[in-house]
């Protein structure tokens, strides 16, 4: 989320909210430091590449990654996605407390992310943006992806829609409501707001985020070009077949992330500083 921090808000702690007592701090999980360094690199690379593609807004919105039980990496408050380095990523716990990091966490950043991490264990990576073409679809009453494009078919059976805009997600209740709308989907279109994409890794979730924006851009162009004519819909059976085909080639997502890091090495030296 991207609202201004509000006094009195802290990161979600639903058990404490119910009982009024401070929750017991979980035992610190053992962290694989080499894996953590790789995760910081992927998170910073995804943010920088998203900025290069114009998928960011101001210094708002967050990408987060669960790296161990009750441990998450997330981008810090106040840094533009185009300037973050691997070492700028914050290591936080589920209550939004910074465990490692030289920057603050935006106080309201974690309301959506923490509830999705908590309620969807398979959602290791949670990416939230207001990227332009996908967000434009959320502005249309009952705006839906049309199954007319190979790029779109990768999302067959994986897309949910929250058609109820409820203002900024400034508290647990709204974060929990949004998370409940995701259910078992990997993509959530959030009415009048933006999108959230989840996945088992930053590489897979970012690849989906990238192709989701491309799919929405193509749909917009097609609708404009069609000038009122219907788009050519792919039969459902073929949608399912192509969706499965693309799902069987997810090494492409890891290769894309590796290519992004090589391009950043050439174009933006310093991005990988830990
Ligand atoms: Zn948002």
Rg over CA atoms? 19 Å
- The CATH class assignment is Alpha Beta
CATH topology: L-fuculose-1-phosphate Aldolase
Supply the CATH superfamily name.
Class II aldolase/adducin N-terminal domain
Side-by-side strand order of the widest sheet:
4-3-2-1-5-8-7-6
The succession of helices and strands, N to C, reads HHEEEEHEHHEHEEHHH
Based on DSSP secondary structure assignment, what is the total number of beta strands?
8
Q: Nutshell version of this structure?
A:
This protein is of the alpha+beta class.
Describe this structure in words.
The structure is a single chain. With 274 residues, this protein is α+β, with helices and mostly antiparallel strands. The chain has a single domain (29-267), classed as Class II aldolase/adducin N-terminal domain (L-fuculose-1-phosphate Aldolase). The protein contains nine helices and eight strands. The chain has helices at residues 14-19, 33-52, 110-119, 132-138, 150-153, 172-182, 202-226, 236-247, 251-267; strands at 63-68, 71-74, 90-92, 98-100, 125-129, 159-162, 187-190, 194-199. An eight-stranded mixed beta sheet has the order 4-3-2-1-5-8-7-6, with helices on both faces. Helix 6 links the parallel strand 6 (159-162) and strand 7 (187-190). Helix 2 (33-52) packs parallel to helix 7 (202-226). The longest helix is centred in the C-terminal third of the chain and has 25 residues, at 202-226. It is globular. Residues 1-22 have low confidence and may be disordered. Bound molecules: zinc ion (ZN). Zinc ion binds next to loops.
């Amino acid at each position: 989320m991207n609202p201004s921090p509000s006094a009195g808000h802290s990161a979600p702690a639903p058990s404490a909210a119910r009982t009024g007592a401070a929750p017991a701090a979980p035992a610190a999980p053992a962290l694989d430091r080499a894996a953590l360094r790789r995760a910081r690199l992927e998170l910073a690379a995804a943010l920088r590449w998203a900025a290069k593609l114009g998928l960011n807004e101001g210094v708002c919105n967050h990408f987060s990654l669960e790296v161990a039980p009750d441990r998450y990496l997330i981008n810090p408050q106040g840094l533009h996605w185009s300037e973050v380095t691997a070492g700028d990523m914050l290591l936080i716990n589920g209550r939004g407390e910074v465990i490692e990091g030289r920057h603050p966490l935006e106080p309201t950043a974690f309301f959506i992310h923490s509830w999705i991490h908590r309620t969807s264990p398979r959602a290791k990576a949670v990416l939230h943006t207001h990227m332009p073409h996908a967000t434009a679809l959320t502005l249309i009453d009952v705006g839906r992806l049309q199954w007319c494009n190979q790029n779109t078919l990768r999302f067959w059976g994986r897309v949910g829609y929250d058609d109820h805009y409820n203002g900024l997600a400034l508290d647990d209740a709204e974060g929990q409501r949004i998370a409940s709308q995701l259910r078992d989907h990997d993509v959530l279109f959030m009415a009048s707001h933006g999108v959230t994409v989840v996945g088992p890794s930053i590489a897979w979730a970012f690849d989906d985020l990238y192709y989701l924006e491309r799919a929405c851009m193509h749909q917009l162009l097609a609708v404009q070009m069609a000038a009122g004519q219907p788009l050519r819909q792919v039969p459902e059976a073929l949608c399912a077949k192509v969706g499965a085909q693309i799902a069987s080639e997810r090494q492409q997502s890891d290769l894309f992330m590796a290519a992004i890091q090589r391009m950043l090495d050439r174009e933006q030296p310093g991005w990988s500083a830990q």
